[in-house]
Design brief:
Blueprint lengths: L3 E5 L11 H9 L2 E4 L2 H10 L6 E3 L5 H13 L4 E3 L13 H9 L3 E5 L4 H9 L6 E6 L4 H10 L6 E6 L4 H12 L4 E5 L7 E5 L1 H9 L8 E5 L12 H10 L4 H12 L3 H9 L13 E4 L4
Parallel strand pairs: 1-4, 1-5, 2-3, 2-4, 6-7
Antiparallel strand pairs: 7-10, 8-9, 8-10, 9-11
Helix pairs in contact: 3-4, 6-7, 7-8, 9-10, 10-11
Bound molecules: S-adenosylmethionine.
S-adenosylmethionine binds next to helix 5, strand 7, strand 8 and strand 10.
């Protein structure tokens, strides 16, 4: 009878963020497939887990997945972890899970931390719909194209970002998406955890003013800000376009784009009495963590 593959979430910083069940399964598994055996060994040592580790990373994923599937077919049970958080989320693991599912091997998740969800729930941005975009491309042209393609998404956008690229990405977010509410969540669950809130330009300026930008970031982008008091009301903009001969749906789409709103939000606004109420973030606010 084939064994099982367990996809195990591990801490994103604070070693206490692991479930009892994860610790027990990591102890009981025949092996633990992990990105960097030294990183995972630190976690395992912390919990007195002696299970053997097998390296499974971006560069050996395809061949290693085949070997591990054979082991599972022979009845071994294995755990898959990544360096931090939940495997497969901007981390290796897709190939082995896909292959295991295709081979009829049971795959079970042992859920736990993930930077994207931790960042989303502290962001203060809408959580009803969100789009996780992984890492933004490192090249500016591609990065801007990705942002443009998401401009009409009626959801909070979430990206992982490296510290050396965070200010460039914020510049592009400002250029492509304008003054939307942005949250930069840094070093979550760690000693220097902080959550910066403001526009992309404000947060970029605050980070650029530091001697160095360190740590791991999640960038979240909210839907557009409400129009300022001196801006023309959305309804008036639409009526003006219609008056100029633009078809109604097209007028709503144009205004949605100009105001950085989703088409759905504008349609809703035009079909109901209550308009969207989104507070301007003003200057960036920072909340910091304390002892962890
Ligand atoms: N699989 C992981 C997860 O579930 O969160 C993410 C792995 S991805 C290779 C690493 C990226 O996640 C980092 O570059 C950063 O953007 C984000 N990240 C990981 N830990 C973080 C933390 N403690 N605080 C903020 N962002 C974090």
């Amino acid at each position: 009878m084939p064994g099982r593959l367990y996809v195990v979430s591990t801490p994103i910083g604070n070693l206490e963020d692991i479930t009892y069940r994860a610790v027990r399964f990591l102890k009981e598994a025949d092996w633990i497939a992990c990105e960097d055996t030294r990183t995972t060994r630190r976690l395992l040592d912390h919990y007195g887990i002696a299970t053997r580790t097998i390296s499974y990373h971006d560069h050996n994923e395809t061949e290693r997945a085949g070997e591990l599937i054979e082991r599972l077919e022979q009845g071994e049970s294995g755990a898959l972890v990544s360096d931090a958080g939940t495997p497969l989320l901007s981390d290796p693991g897709y190939r082995i899970v896909h292959a295991a599912a295709a081979a009829g091997i049971r795959v079970e998740a042992l859920p736990g931390p993930s930077a994207l969800l931790a960042a989303l729930v502290v962001s203060g941005l809408p959580t009803d719909q969100f789009h996780f975009g992984g890492f933004l491309p490192s090249k500016q042209g591609q990065r801007r194209r990705v942002l443009e393609s998401l401009a009409d998404e009626g959801a909070t956008l979430i990206f992982y970002e490296a510290p050396h690229r965070v200010t460039e990405s914020l510049e592009d977010i400002a250029a492509v998406l304008g003054d939307r509410p942005i949250v930069a969540a840094r070093e979550l669950t760690k000693m220097y955890e902080e959550v910066l809130r403001g526009t992309a330009a404000e947060i970029g300026a605050a980070l650029s003013a530091r001697d160095s930008i360190r740590g791991e970031f999640v960038i979240l982008i909210g839907k557009s800000l409400a129009p300022a008091a001196n801006e023309v009301p959305i309804e008036d903009m639409i009526e003006a376009l219609i008056g100029a001969g633009v078809e109604r749906m097209e007028a709503m789409k144009t205004v949605a784009r100009e105001r950085g709103l989703s088409k759905r939000e504008v349609y809703k606004l035009m079909s109901g009495p209550a308009g969207p109420k989104v507070k301007s973030p003003g200057s960036p606010t920072v909340s910091r963590g304390g002892s962890k």
